Amino acid sequence: SNNYFGRTEVIDNTLNPDFVRKFVLDFFFEEKQNLRFDLHVWTVLCSINCVLVSSVKDFLGQMFCTLGEIIGSAGSRLERTLSGIPGKKCGTIIFSAEELSNCRDIATMQLCANKLDKKDFFGKSDPFLVFYRSNEDGTFTICHKTEVIKNNLNPVWQPFTIPVRALCNGDYDRTVKVDVYDWDRDGSHDFIGEFTTSYRELSRGQSQFNVYEVKYKNSNLISIIKKEYTVSPKLYFPEYPCALCVLGVVRLSPGNPSQPTSLHYMSPYQMNAYAMALKAVGEIIQDYDSDKLFPAYGFGAKLPPDGKISHAFPLNSNTENPNCVGIDGVLEAYFQSLRTVQLYGPTNFAPVINQVARCAAEVTDGSQYFVLLMITDGVISDMAQTKESVVNAASLPMSIIIVGVGPAEFDAMEELDGDEVRVSSRGRFAERDIVQFVPFRDYIDRSGNQVLSMARLAKDVLAEIPDQLLSFHEKSRD
Fold first, then answer.
1. What are the residues whose beta carbons fall under 8 Å from the beta carbon of 44, sequence distance 6 or more?
2. What Pfam families does the entry give (predicted)?
3. For the stretch 7-38, what's the b/e string if a residue is b when 16 or more beta carbons lie within 10 angstroms of its beta carbon?
């Protein structure tokens, strides 16, 4: 749907606008949240005695992405090219995202200044203030602009109210930078000076003035905090930024893929359950994979040319580089493998879990987290070894998603999904719950709406990933 969400402010006379208005969206890791951004320029056609008579809204370009792509990009900063006007370069659009803390504090403050630097040739200065919140990477993001006070070197700005989380994301000691500018009609505002502070420092001025020297000329700025409240810190998912490394594994259960009785049947009209599950889960989780290269494996097949049984072979047949480009690349490799290998048993889970675990064990700095997506028909031939593999993997930065397809009973899968009773092996219990299992058949929509049913499947299997990631970091920190 094309639901209108909101609009930024208009910034005059610039080709490189830095918008102040922030948009607060509810982020759901397990859902695909599509976004569209349209850029327009507002042109005043006629203005009489400062009264706007009419205006024209010209289209400058648009961009489509998902909220997950913004959150999952390096530093939660995404830069994309605008498009929409044939034959014309529309420029780029840059997004920055930061999770707001649960802090509900609100600060109302008023600022005044004296002896500001004179910038205008025929007058004094028309000063205004710009507040910036500092980011984790050392950059700054605009969070507030005051009104302009015309022709005054000793301005008193109106009191304004701002959420503390917008000012410093609830961190009382985070740097807050304030720039002082002289307003110019053409948008080329003159810089007067700046100072840095923090909300904690600002709040100490509740009963007395805070005086800051503006670092440019010998101008002074005085801030007065009117209100302050307390903050309750909490642990959040983005406190641990990392790249999710997604690996796909498909169980090639016996049967002829050219026959409708096979779970791998390649119908010309619709995808089989394996492909649907891969696409549904993969399209969402790929937004958080740093390079969009997915190692994809099959297990339970005889490989050409000698018919050797394998429980972890690259779907693209490239033993040197099992990576597929995007989820579409994984699907292409899956369909190609069905034409080249002979589907065969038994079904051993442990080899591929151990293979991913070896990759995860090499990451010791918390910079990566691995998600193993396994799609299988439900039979496990090596249950004891699989349970031991899961117990060992629970101490590593990894999660396992299992989608069971076909009519089989999934008792073994339910046992691996340790929601009720934690998985154990030889008296040793997994220190975290890292397995999430769902049966594909529970999501077949009777009305035939595959899009809706696959969205529900993806939501359910991905819902636990943020908590599992957090649980790993909490265990590592203890």
1. 52, 54, 55
2. C2, Copine
3. eeeeeeeeeeeeeeebeeeebebbbbbebeee
Burial of 339-374, coded b for 16+ CB within 10 Å and e otherwise, reads eebebbeebbbbbbbbbbbebbeebeeeebbbbbbb
Using DSSP's 3-state secondary structure scheme, residue 140 falls into strand
- The encoded tokens of residue 368 equal 């990566």
| Token couple for 379 | 């039979």
Which CATH fold would you assign to the domain 106-225? Immunoglobulin-like (2.60.40)
> Do 133 and 140 meet the contact criterion of CB atoms below 8 Å apart?
yes
Give dist(CA 330, CA 311) in Å, integer.
18
Distance between CA atoms of 49 and 118, rounded to whole angstroms?
A: 28
pLDDT of residue 224: 46
Token pair, residue 17, equals 């606008």
Cα pseudo-dihedral 356, 357, 363, 364, rounded to 10: 170
d(CA 379, CA 398): 23
Domains 106-225 and 237-477 share a fold: no
HSE, CB side, 13 Å, CA atoms: give it for residue 74: 4
Q: Which two tokens stand for residue 313?
A: 């072979």
Strands (E), 241-378: 243-251, 293-299, 301-303, 308-310, 313-314, 323-325, 342-343, 368-376
Angle between helices 350-361 and 383-393 (to 10 degrees): 20
- Residue numbers in the chain where pLDDT is lower than 50: 1, 223-241
Strands of the sheet with 106-114, listed across from one edge:
160-163, 106-114, 218-225, 210-215
Pairing mode, if any, of strands 190-198 and 313-314? Answer: unpaired
201: number of CA atoms within 13 Å, CB side? 15
Q: Are 329 and 335 in contact (CB under 8 A)?
A: no
Distance, in Å, from the CA atom of 66 to the CA atom of 71, rounded to the nearest integer, reads: 9
Residue-range domain boundaries for the chain:
1-99, 106-225, 237-477
Nearest alpha carbon to residue 70 among 33, 109, 118: 33
Of residues 75, 68, 100, 80, the one with CA closest to residue 37: 80
Q: Please give the structure tokens belonging to residue 410.
A: 């999934």
Instruction: Identify the residue whose tokens are 């850029």.
Output: 39
DSSP 222-255: EEEE-----------GGGS--EEEEEEEEE--SS
Write the pLDDT tens digit of every residue in 159-208: 888 888 888 887 888 899 999 888 888 778 888 888 888 888 887 755 55
Specify the CATH superfamily of domain 237-477: von Willebrand factor, type A domain (3.40.50.410)
